[in-house]
Design a protein that fits this description.
Layout (H helix, E strand, L loop, with lengths): L7 H9 L3 E4 L6 E4 L4 E4 L9 H9 L3 E4 L3 H8 L12 H12 L3 E8 L2 E11 L2 E9 L4 H15 L4 E5 L3 H4 L4 E3 L1 H12 L5
Parallel strand pairs: 7-8
Antiparallel strand pairs: 1-2, 3-8, 3-9, 4-5, 5-6, 6-7
Helix pairs in contact: 3-4
Length: 196
């Protein structure tokens, strides 16, 4: 579908249907995908922090901020080292910034005295968080942001953290995969949750 014709509500409907969007490089097209199996980062004691990262966390090299530089985070994520991984275009940036304004899209950011050094963004719908992308300018900054996100999701009783297709970068955190049929049940449970 043409990215310029999509609305934030189209993106939300995709997520609640188990789909996620990716732009086709060099075109105005955005395609929707379904990962089977689906990658999830556990929010329970299966979440694993590698030893090297534990040492980094003890030093507290970054200040964690939430939603203070969403556009800067997604723009940084749109510039991967590998051009073949380019799936965030101007339409994706526009749509997610609008989702951010609506309270659905969020950024977790790592700052130091030199500025923004890494972070990630994703979409929260009820008890599901759909992780989209991360970046770093200084070592471990994106990983520190991920740990901060997991702690935040735990504190707010989220059911899961969706990673779509798990990468080698995040497998070391205890990422696991479930079949699409099982994922759909989990998704339904997460998005039909009503706060008391």
């Amino acid at each position: 579908m043409k990215g310029s014709e999509l609305t934030p509500n189209d993106i939300i409907q995709a997520y609640v249907s188990g789909l996620f969007p990716m732009a086709e490089p060099g075109t105005d097209e955005i395609y929707f995908y379904r990962a089977d199996p689906r990658g999830l980062i556990p929010l329970d004691d299966r979440f694993h922090i590698p030893h090297g990262l534990k040492r980094t966390l003890k030093k507290k090299p970054f200040e964690i901020r939430i939603d203070t530089a969403f556009r800067e985070v997604i723009t940084a994520c749109s510039r991967p080292h590998d051009p073949d991984e380019q799936w965030i275009d101007d339409n994706i940036i526009r749509l997610y910034c609008e989702l951010h304004d609506m309270g659905f899209a969020h950024s977790i950011e790592c700052w130091d005295k030199d500025g923004l050094q890494g972070g990630l963004y994703g979409v929260a719908i009820r008890r599901a968080f759909f992780g989209e992308s991360m970046f770093h300018r200084k070592s471990d900054a994106s990983k520190v942001a991920l740990v901060a996100l997991v702690n935040l999701l735990r504190a707010h009783d989220f059911l899961y953290l969706d990673t779509q297709w798990p990468t080698e970068h995040i497998k070391k955190f205890g990422t696991y995969e479930i079949p699409d049929k099982e994922y759909k049940k989990l998704l339904k449970q997460a998005i039909t949750y009503e706060k008391n």
